[in-house]
Amino acid sequence: MTDQIYLKRCLELANKALGKTYPNPLVGSVIVHEGKIIGEGYHQKAGEPHAEVNAVRSVKNKVLLKESTIYVSLEPCSHFGKTPPCANMIVEQGFEKVVIGTVDLHEKVNGKGIEILENAGIEVASGKLDQESRELNKRFFTFHEKKRPYIILKWAQSGDGFLDQNFKPTQIGNPLTKQFVHQLRSEEHAILVGTNTAINDNPSLTVRKVEGRNPIRILIDFDLKASPNSKIYNEDASTLVFNAEKSSEENHLKFIKIEKENFLENLMKELFEENIQSVVVEGGSYTLQQFIDANLWDEALIIKNDNLLFEKGTKAPHFNYEEDRIENFGDNTIAFYKNQDSLSY
Asked: Which of these is catalytic: 12, 34, 48, 52?
């Protein structure tokens, strides 16, 4: 039970960097000597030191490391990337034991880190908090196991099931749900809309109500109908434009030519190639319904204001699933859904 306590602390630390480590996973690490935590660390940003390195650096008396156990939420890496392998570093420091939350199924790791540790005579215990550790890195695992991003559907609807009133953009959310949405944007890798949303709503798809990074913007615009002066084309964030006309790169813009036939399958392949680990689909009813009909989603969030009755407008997507939970945000509610068919973590 003690191992689980320390690993849960690893998860708490790792979660501090949510949205900042793409394409790397979230990882936390704790160093324990004679029942006392003497060091902590987490991977804060891609390209920067990993969790285990930061935990070791935080220990004041390095002599104690040879008598300590290092806990890490994900199997230590075994390959050279932007930083050296953490498994080798752990061996060099002479730890007695390593306790791992879950194995890293990335093809470059997947047991190789554990093998390095065991070959060096270090005691290794793995899978000690498997489900929770995989949940933390659901984006990372979905990306590497399914070769596609983790897909989150999101929309707001009136009490009578419309996305707008009289087919004109209409405010449904309140300040609390707006802040929630911007927090979501800051945590996910990318955000996607279709042509109609880009033209009718002219969204910037950036983070403004909270502090955080802007997601990569994805526009599906086969005939390039959206104006180059649209907010989605501004320099506030990198933007991928999937279309049937051209492939080119222009500063922060990347145009990717894609076939309309088997579009979603092709899109997932392209996003995998672009190393996009998660996508919030904020498109209109048509775009959302395509993902729903293909059962291509992992989570869904529906913001609802029961006090608003529009009577006429764009109907919300047809979505017949049972919510996982509902949370109140003033006069709004958010229903949260998980696609049981797609769970792999």
From this structure: 52
